[in-house]
Every structure is written in structure tokens, then in C-alpha cells.
Fold this protein.
Amino acid sequence: MRPLFLHLDDALASQPALIERGLADGARRLEVGGIGPAMRLWSRPKALDALRGRLRDQAPAAGPELVFAGSGDFHHVTPLLLERAVEAAGGGPVTVLHFDNHPDWVKFDNGMHCGSWVGRAARLPGVARVVTVGVCSGDIDRPRSKGADLSLVEEGRVELYAYREPTGADAVRVCGREWPTIESVGEAAFADLLASRIETEAVYVTIDKDVLRAEDAVTNWDQGRTSLDFLSAMVRGAAARHRLIGADVVGDWSPQVLGGGPLAALLKRGEALLDQPWRRPDAAAARRLNEAVNLRLYDLFAEAAA
């Protein structure tokens, strides 16, 4: 898989060992920081179209890619990257394997939100289903009242396997469908179960590192309970049985620079205060840990695609 570093913030620029490793393997770097503030947390169509154009013109897809894209505040770039991957692979069907502490399935009008992109991805031509894994957040407790687009579940476009259900139940129940939690099944058994739920030959993997435990990553969001070793085992299991057509990684902590106009920046600031941890981590320590994790993920996908 050819690496691509998508510089929407400064998270990756402060990880020299990762960049050096990628460049030695023929990685491309796309500097799009000018678009970043307008895209952070959520983005209107104009900024999304600008990024799509920059990707098309400056880094055209030519086979499977591993994309590092900085903060999880940019997870809504995944549908753009998925479109490229499906096209480069010659079309679908493809299953999207989504590792995250949040389901990212809310409704959002006139653009995309880092918490809404799953609906867009699940409805792309060639996408058979999004399988979301590792959620611990309260977003899945009474999801309809929290703006979830539950038609995705009703139409069979999304499956959700939480690490644990916030109420302590052994399964997540939504719209008459039920999926066991990882905690209730056990990690080893769940890795086998997950691979069996991918019903297409092709798979695309997207990782938000907030799915990981706090000791394994530092993000702009609340952290889940998945260990890096368990995440790696799930990716290996899926790649052993299916064709990996692409992957992206977000979830690096970075200072927020918010844009899109004065009103948008104000709304985003208020949203961040409501939804994200207030405590600012030690930036140097966060960089060191996230770079180490990114290097392990880099090796993981190199192995999986071999």
C-alpha cells in the first residue's frame, strides 16, 4: 500500500520518524493546511469539493493507499478517500471496517461532520456495508434522541459491535437488530466473528485512534478500551481473508484551529467545549506516543497488504 500523508493540521509534521519512513517507501505528502480550519469538526460542500480536487490533481489514486490524515476531527475525509479506493479497485462491492469510539452516524445537513460521515460512506456506490467496531461512548445509548440516522441500521447498511454497552448490557439493540459486545464475547472469539461478518471480497479499513485505550494514543476525544494489540489482531484477521483496497488513520491530537467563517468557528468552538475533553495534554508526550502508534500501524498495513 502506498502511503499518503494528508496534512490538514500539524499533527503529522511533528512526527519525523513516520514521515521519513513513508518517504523512503515512496509516500506522497499533500499540504492542505489552508483548507484544514474550514474542515475541522465539520465542513460545508465548498471545502469538501476543494479537498477532493486537490486529491485528484496532486495525488491521483493509483492502487491501494494508506492515508494518515491527522486529528479525528477530520474523520469526515474518509468518504472522499473511500471513493478513490473503490474507483482504483475497479468498483465494489466493498465492506468498510470502521474502528472508532463513536459510531459517527448522526444526521448533518449541508456538508459533513466528523460524527456524520458514516451515512455518506455507507451510501456510496459500491459500498455494501459499514461495520463499526469498538464503540464505548454514550452515543449508542438512546441513539435516536442523539440524532443518529437509524435508517442506516434499518436498511442493513451499518452493523455496530461496541466494546461495551454504556448501560452494561451484553449486546447493542437498535431498530430490532442486536449485536453482541466485544466484552461479552471475548477478544479472541470476537476477532474471528468480525472476519466472518465481512461478506465481500474487498475491505477498506478506517481507524480513529480514539478507539484505543488512553495508554495507546492521545486524541482530541474521549478514549475507548481497545488495545493496540487487539486492534492489530482484528485488522490482520480481516486482511487474511479479504482483499485490502485501502485504509486511513486519524486520531492524532493537535491544537484546534477552527475556521469556515466567524460564525462557523464560533459554533465549532462551542461544540468542542461540549463534546471534547477540556484538559490539554502535554503536546510533546502526545506526539511521541502517537508517532509510535502510527509506526506500528504503518507496519501492520504493510504486512496486511503483502
